[in-house]
Specification:
Layout: H1 5-13, H2 20-43, E1 50-52, H3 53-59, H4 64-74, E2 92-94, H5 99-108, H6 112-115, H7 120-123, H8 126-139
Antiparallel strand pairs: 1-2
Helix pairs in contact: 1-4, 3-4, 5-8
Region (Disordered): 135-161
InterPro entries: SEC_C_motif
Protein name: SEC-C domain-containing protein
């Protein structure tokens, strides 16, 4: 069995051949576990949680596979990413997260059960949470610039009219 822990986790979590009902049940159960881990992590936001994959699984009363899924999910929000592609249960990992980045990633994932956790109220004021939420939502919005008219100065900076320069 040469598959890495991450490959094993993804084979189960994203199995195209699985029964849809079973997969929905799997994710519903996982999201509840994920929520419980985040409640504990966010309750003590200054603590730098570190240990092997196996130690963290035991600390949060989870299986190693579930912990691998959690590590996969939080990795983009960590100050120092974990070697999730190659880790085994004895790999040293951390859960030292960037608070703002974690909040924004939860918003980006549309995980309202996570970014609405009451623990966030102790970390950020309501104004800060609204600002982070808005920043994240706007980061995905594409805005078109004002269209250059034929007789406007050319945006290249030549000083000519657009129609006589780059608009040809």
């Amino acid at each position: 069995m040469s598959n890495t822990l991450l490959e094993q986790w993804r084979a189960v979590a994203y199995n195209e051949k699985s029964d849809r009902g079973q997969l929905q049940q799997f994710w519903a159960s996982y999201f509840q576990i994920e929520k419980e881990i985040y409640e504990q992590l966010l309750s003590n936001p200054e603590e730098e949680v570190r240990g092997t994959v196996k130690e963290l699984a035991e600390r949060y009363h989870q299986s190693v596979m579930t912990m691998v899924g959690f590590l996969d999910g939080i990795d983009e929000s960590l100050k120092v990413p974990n070697p999730i592609e190659t880790m085994d249960e004895d790999t040293e990992v951390n859960l030292v997260y960037d608070k703002e980045l974690l909040y924004k990633n939860m918003v980006a994932a549309k995980a309202d059960w996570l970014y609405e956790l009451p623990q966030w109220k102790e970390i950020f004021s309501e104004e800060e949470r609204k600002k982070l939420y808005k920043e994240q939502k706007e980061s995905g919005t594409i805005r078109k610039g004002k269209k250059v008219g034929r007789n406007d100065p050319c945006p290249c900076g030549s000083g000519k009219k657009y129609k006589k320069c780059c608009g040809r």
